[in-house]
Every structure is written in structure tokens, then in C-alpha cells.
């Protein structure tokens, strides 16, 4: 059973790397099996189609459950809190080509990926809303915190920016060498702008 799990993990690791480097359509299953060093028949045993492989990757590796928010709240400083959350998110993405590249590249043509992105955004917004609310020291309407969290999630998960960066990435030749496209140089200014609406107590 352990060997079975190891083989499956090797296949997923290989698919993650190759999908990030070449794209889903540009990656034959033979290349995945070769990189994983497993027989092609074993790949099809676990994943009957290449789409099943993609589905497994986004289902199992696009998840925010491991995120630790305990050190992200900057009390009295919502803008810093937003930047802290984003920094932690980027650390997780740096460890996962699924989060960094694959879902944003493949979502236009794969409904299951689009659905997972939507769930990811909902999960991320709940996290942002929670830590943002904890950073505010005065009474404030929950709807304002919710709106601010939604705006921030939209900024840091903008598919159009990621798709544009994906083209630049292909030209550069490496997924790991490209800066995150959802982190513009003025990200702190955007955090200040969003936080401005949270600074005064709401009736």
C-alpha cells in the first residue's frame, strides 16, 4: 500500500512539474510516466485520462487548510495585515506549481479547474476576512470587512494578470523565474487604499 501511494505521488509530482513547464496540452502522458519513472500502464491505472491527472492535482494541491494565520494579524494596522496574508500565501505558492501556475493557465479550458478556483477564492476570502477583522481595534460593520476582504482577494487572484504573466513566463522559459503577476510594485499602496475605508468606526 505504501508503494502504491509512493507511485501515485511520483506521478502527481511529475505531472505538476511538466504541466507547469509545458502546459496541459503540451505534456504527453508518456513524458509524465518517464519523469515519474513508472510504467505508462501504472499511470493509467491511477489516472485513466490526462484530465483525471489535472483534476487530482487541483483537488489535492490547491488547498489553504495548512495556512497558519496566528502570526499574520497586525493589530491596529489592516494594511500590514493584508500584506502579511499575501506574503504567507506567496510562501505556499512558491512550494506549489499548482497554486503558482497551473490553475491560472488551465482554467479557461477546464471547468473542473474553474470550479476549484472559485472554491479557493471563497476559502481565501474567509481567511482574509478573519485576520482583517482581528486587526481592527474599533467597532466596524461586518459588511465593510467582508467588502474589503473581497476586494483584496480580487487583487491577488486576478486571472488576467496571471495569464499575461504566463505568456511572459513561456518566453522566459521557466515557471520558477517569473515574479508573481498579482504582486504589482504598488501592492502596499493598494493595501492602504483598501484599508482606508476601515479606519473610522461604522455606525
How many helices? The count is 10
Q: What structural class is derived from the secondary structure elements? A: mainly alpha
β-strand percent reads: under 5%
- Summed up, the domain count is 2
For the secondary structure, the number of strands is 0
Between the first and last Cα atoms, what is the distance in angstroms? Answer: 59 Å
H/E series:
HHHHHHHHHH
Protein name: TetR/AcrR family transcriptional regulator
Keywords: DNA-binding, Transcription, Transcription regulation
Organism: Microbacterium ureisolvens
Report on the structure:
It is a single chain. The relative contact order is 0.12. It contains 10 helices and no strands. The protein is mainly alpha-helical and 203 residues long. The protein folds into 2 domains: 2-61, Orthogonal Bundle (Arc Repressor Mutant, subunit A); 78-196, no CATH class. Keywords: DNA-binding, Transcription, Transcription regulation. Pfam families: TetR_N (PF00440). Residues 28-47 bind DNA. Residues 5-65 form the HTH tetR-type domain.
Summary of the model, kept short:
With 203 residues, this protein is mostly helical.
Which features characterize this protein?
203 residues, mainly alpha, Arc Repressor Mutant, subunit A, 2 domains, 0% strand
Note the topology:
Layout lengths: L1 H21 L6 H8 L3 H7 L3 H12 L16 H17 L2 H10 L4 H25 L6 H15 L2 H14 L14 H10 L7
Helix pairs in contact: 1-2, 1-6, 5-6, 5-7, 5-10, 7-8
